[in-house]
Amino acid sequence: MGRGVAHKLIESHLVEGEMVPGRPIALSVDQTLTQDATGTLVMQELEALGLDRTRAEVSVQYVDHNLLQADEKNAEDHEFLQSAARRYGLWYSKPGNGVSHPTHMQRFGVPGKTLAGSDSHTCAAGSLGMLAVGVGGLEVAMAIAGRPLRIRAPQIWGVRLTGELPEWTSAKDVILEMLRRHGVKGGLNRIIEYHGPGLDTLSAMDRHVIANMGAELGATTTVFPADGAVRDFLRAEGREDDFTELLADTDAAYDVTDEIDLSSVEPLIALPSAPDKVVPVREAAGEKVGQVVIGSSANPGLRDYAVAAAMVKGRQTDSTVSFDVNPSSRQIFADLTKTGATVDLIGAGARIHQAGCLGCIGMGQAPAVGSNSLRTFPRNFPGRSGTKEDSVWLCSPETAAASALAGEITDPRDLAERLGIAYPELEPPERSSVNTRMLVPPPPREESLRAELVKGPNISALPDFPPLPDRIEAPVLLKVGDDVSTDEISPAGAAALPFRSNVPRLAEFTFTRIDEDYPRRAHDLADGQGHFVIGGDNYGQGSSREHAAITPRFLGLRAVVARSFARIHWQNLANFGVLALEFTDPADYDRIESGDVLVLDGLRETLPAASEVVLRNKTRDEEYTLRHRLSAPQVESVLAGGQIPLLARELE
Q: Where is the Aconitase/3-isopropylmalate dehydratase large subunit alpha/beta/alpha domain positioned along the sequence (predicted)?
């Protein structure tokens, strides 16, 4: 049988293992991506590893998440990151240059290459025919240090696209349809590969929208072919020489298959507060709206802003709606302005914000309590917006603009009929407004080695975690349900994120969206015995931020016992010495309560030798069989108290 794009990408970078689903493999990494919310830890990890200079072909540090400078903390982090980029030979994208994913696609993405990024939406680069995987920061630090990326070989899920999208729908509705069908766990341990004749109707930026939100399906990554649409994109960016065709064989075989007739897609919307609670917009129509936000890496292309601008041109958004526009890059903002679309947006009442993530990560634009916020963002986890009791919906730019005009959730087809709006005919520019002035290139090697890191008072050292003890006897400090996200473990938002470089201070926010008292109760366990957390299915979904492993570990977390784990967070736990265990009988989850004292014994002998361990519930006098899925290197990491001490010894 023939090979698909994903198989070809893996085979060309495979340095260890076999491409058999479920087995460990190692892949060489060509490029790395870090952003400021996770990159500060990566740079601290490079310092701890004693690295001289990046060994990847291209490494880029973006500043796109924490742009608000309410005090000195974010500015200190930006100085630290720029100094680290000089020290380790990375490109540096200055604050306000743009969101990492579309900006990387515009300036650095190359078909056929691999990319490891400390952001779960790194998978967006699959739109160019790249194998782009979002991982924890330590994985990226290791890739910068020249180490391969280690993952479990995924299944390849082939999704065949046919037909053409109808008017008033867009690529966002395609990925929402995938989430409606398959849910947030549908892509676990899979690479999604889109193929079929429907691809001919989707631009590279349309594909970016779909690839980006593969993270919401839980997928390892998403890939598209590098075809004529990718060539057109790179030509517009002045980089046609970087194009290499990469297509699936005509008889390519896939482990799992699905098909979407694009002509059958209708405007869709995700209800609060999960990306897979998807219904047709007409089912939610009439709900009052207080805020509409267009932007983010999930709707980053010029077309996504231009279609909204064309819809609101010469009209006023409803007086009760705050209409916010987040340009995804300065380049796209410049092109939008050249076409006159920026004036159309401003004339309709839009508030234009700087190019960056901002509201997507809860850094500004927090909605009012009890007010519906429609966003073209990738996620609507509870509280992620910066408002604890929020009501965030996810939709396309067409639905967002229609609802902003109407003041209530509105299907754009219905608004067009009511107001006599013709579907906008948009013609993209042949050449993009390329401006690299806010991209700082890496200095020569000799200059890098002389550079010093600039650390403000808010930047702490990485914690030094001790090895895992042979016996853990500790209480269950917290029991949580299914689909708990890393936003709930280590919150984003304007209050917490400025402390991303200060682990002791950031730890005070740990789990507070679920249990405000968790940090205090963890501190009260002063005898050092630590504690357990019990989780449901898909524990740790969402962002790749390794803070969600580090801050609970700092507070004494020894082990998480769950029904199942999200891929990136599971790896992050192992990287920082937290034991991740799964119930062999999911019903045992119901037999453990918060406050129960649990015992694991003989760990240093059992973990390397067997995949199962026995957990004793001392409070209830019961035993449960648990399993771990750790490879031998991961077991070594957990026993050592984390990966950093092991790697530092290897690099000496």
A: 8-285, 286-407
Torsion 281-282-283-284 (CA) sign: positive
Interacting residues of 415 by C-beta distance below 8 A, sequence separation 6+: 402, 405, 406, 421
Residue closest to 122 by CA, chosen among 95, 145, 148, 103? 103
Question: Quick one: tokens of 348?
Answer: 């309709």
Percent of the chain with pLDDT over 70: 99
Alpha-carbon distances, residue 465 vs 348, 455, 551, 561 (angstroms)? 54, 22, 11, 20
CA distance 212 to 203: 14
């119901």: which residue's tokens? 590
- Is residue 462 very low, low, confident or very high in pLDDT (cuts 50, 70, 90)? confident
Report the alpha-carbon distance of residue 370 to residue 389 in Å, rounded.
7
- Rounded to the nearest 10°, the torsion over CA 539, 544, 545, 547 is 40
Question: For residues 206 and 229, what is the distance between their CA atoms, to the nearest angstrom?
Answer: 10
Bridge-based pairing of strands 472-479 and 291-295 is unpaired
Q: What is the pLDDT of residues 172-196, one digit of tens each?
A: 999 999 999 999 999 999 999 999 9
> Which residues lie below 8 Å from residue 204, measured CB to CB, with a gap of 6+?
105, 127, 128, 229, 230, 232, 233
CA distance 372 to 393: 7
- In whole angstroms, give the CA distance from residue 294 to residue 84: 32
Q: DSSP characters for 334-376?
A: HHHHHTTHHHHHHHTTPEE--SS-GGGGTSS-PPPTT--EEE-
If 0-12 CB within 10 Å is exposed, 13-18 middle and 19+ buried, where does residue 452 land?
exposed
Given the structure tokens 């590969």, which residue do they identify?
Answer: 193
Q: What is the pTM of this model?
A: 0.93
CA distance 15 to 271: 43
**Residue 356 near residue 464, CB atoms below 8 Å:** no
* Distance, C-alpha 313 to centroid of its chain: 33
**pLDDT tens digits for range 241-267:** 999 999 999 999 999 999 999 999 999
